[in-house]
Amino acid sequence: MRFEILHKTQYDYEDPVSYLIQLLRVTPSSGSGQNVVNWGINAPTVLQPQTDAFGNRTHIMTLTAPTQHLEVTVQGLVEVADDASSHRFAPEGLSPLAFTLPTRYTQADEALTELAHRMLKAQTGHEQRFFDLMNAVYERIAYVTNSTDVNTTAAQSYAQGAGVCQDHAHAFIACARALGIPARYVSGYLNTGDIGHVASHAWVDVYTDRHEWLSLDITHQCVTDGRHCRLAIGHDYDTAAPVRGSRFGGGRESLDAHVYVSAQEQFAPWGEAAQ
User: Fold this and answer.
1) Beta carbons within 8 Å of 95's beta carbon, 6+ residues apart
2) Which end of the chain has less neighbouring CB within 10 Å, N or C?
3) Is the pLDDT of residue 273 over 70?
């Protein structure tokens, strides 16, 4: 499947921002079942391209002139395989063992530890256990928009029985890591099937006994396929979020973000080419 993606993010501030720095993880990489044909970022300042510890392509954006409005737009074309190469990957970069330690988001409490043992321990060596855990997490944490926020932990969303894709991913990862199984957080885009629209999304990679990563979309109870475009991987949301940063001044902030996809129209190339 071909994704022509246009992602606009606008910030408006109550008062002028005197200084701002942001880390942008909004540039996909070729590999893991996808090929980046072209990609660009349009920002109000020169960006500094980098590669982080997870192998993600990132950019640092720094603003030093006062502003009350900020807009960042990313745009490009990505081809995604619709076969096993879209959800099974050989290890690359960091050792899978780097994804076995819990984080603030993925610390398993007693309830998640019990679920991990029930779903994963009894079927050691069988890949079906990961699908069983996926289904159990989905059944426990109902998808309810705005029921959690970016600070909600796996234990909190599991206890309240509601969350979004981020919470599904964190709960699955917490269970896997509770038994020492490597699992990592993936951020990206999902083609929802609505004409002209894709969604920012999150899913997981879990390391199997076949010594490969298996990519699972907990929210949609499936392996990833041609609808999924990967942006970044990390230990959790905090290390894979599309945008993280800090600022001085500005007061209250309003955020407006939209993601679009087109299979018919060609967007004119512009902006900073992905490095």
Assistant:
1) none
2) C
3) no
